[in-house]
Amino acid sequence: MSGLRDFAARRLNALWYGSNPAYWLLWPLSLITRALVAVRRLAFRLGWKRSEDVGVPVVVVGNLTVGGTGKTPLTIWIAQRLLDRGFRVGIVCRGYGGVATDWPRLISESSDVETVGDEAKLLKGRTNCPVAAGPDRVAAAKMLLQSGPLDVILSDDGLQHYWLRRAFEIAVVDGTRGLGNGLCLPAGPLREPPSRLREVDAVVVNQGDFGHAGVIRAEVKAIRMRELSTGSEKLLADFEGQSVHGVAAIGNPGRFFDLLHRHGLVVKAHPLADHANLSASDLTFGDDWPVLMTEKDAVKCGSLGLRNLWCVVMELEFAPGEGEKLERMLMRVLERQPENL
């Protein structure tokens, strides 16, 4: 089943981000998607459907495209900045990849990653903020607030989850792939039309040259490496010139492999479907090469008992002055809320 999912993901990405004109065969279906999106947004504007205010400001970090763009590193960055300013921060996420039958779920260090999903575990581990996961972001936010007082809630993904009222919207764009062919699903990778970028409060471009004046530019960079079984750490530069296996079950595995290449590693790439569960067979290749993976994948592998598995710890680094710009934009909104001061 996972092999079929991998094959489908590769074919769709080639269609959406390549030069194959076959996507025009699906173009009529993309018009239906655009129409449904427009009707849904109109329903919220006219009050036929109502978003719910959970009582504290919500900052949404989302994207227009299917797959990864760097939302989670940005959510972690924002959480850390707000914590430094004394805010009590909670985080909600979808829990994608989790198999729980009852949602939402409060995440703890002991939460099972297969049950709640890899992003939820990563967010909890990196920020130590209260985290709740579930498809219904309103219910997840209310669960957070029932567990303790908060000043602000960050939503990792959820740009299209209009039921949750938001004070600030950030759209993250993969600058190397942009918006693909610019079409909505299934002909292209977009959940909403490109014009949606003009409505958000900030557009953060992760690497690449996509965009125009006014976007905020950043790049996810490798900070250090951690061996999963021992906890020992090294710099990525320590692996320069070495042959390694790269394993990535993320929305855009190529971005992770390119990062390793840029640091001088000789990478045998093993891309997997986004959020795929990893087993020992996915990480055993019959040689003694180090196996490198993202943090999101590493949270699924701690119990496997394998050695020479290395987690690449990454953080978001902004172009000069850009991080401060985004922080000022956020504070202008959050400091208007009396309960946050």
Task: Describe the structure in your own words.
By secondary structure, the chain is of the alpha/beta class. It has two domains: about 240 residues, 3-Layer(aba) Sandwich (Rossmann fold), CATH 3.40.50; about 100 residues. Helices cover about 30% and strands about 20% of the residues. The protein is built from nine helices and 13 strands. Strands 1, 2, 3, 4, 5, 6, 7, 8, 9, 10, 11, 12 and 13 form a 13-stranded mixed beta sheet that branches. Helix 3 packs parallel to helix 5. The longest helix has 19 residues. The protein is globular. The model has no long low-confidence stretch (mean pLDDT about 90).
Radius of gyration: 20 Å
| Domain count | 2
Name of the CATH class of the largest domain: Alpha Beta
Helix content estimate: 25-40%
Instruction: Return the CATH topology of the largest domain.
Output: Rossmann fold
Number of helices: 9
Structural class: alpha/beta
Task: Kindly estimate the percentage of residues that lie in beta strands according to DSSP.
Answer: 15-25%
Kindly state the number of beta strands. Answer: 13
- What about the largest sheet? 13 strands, mixed
Q: Uncertain segments of ≥5 residues (pLDDT<50)?
A: none
CATH architecture of the largest domain: 3-Layer(aba) Sandwich
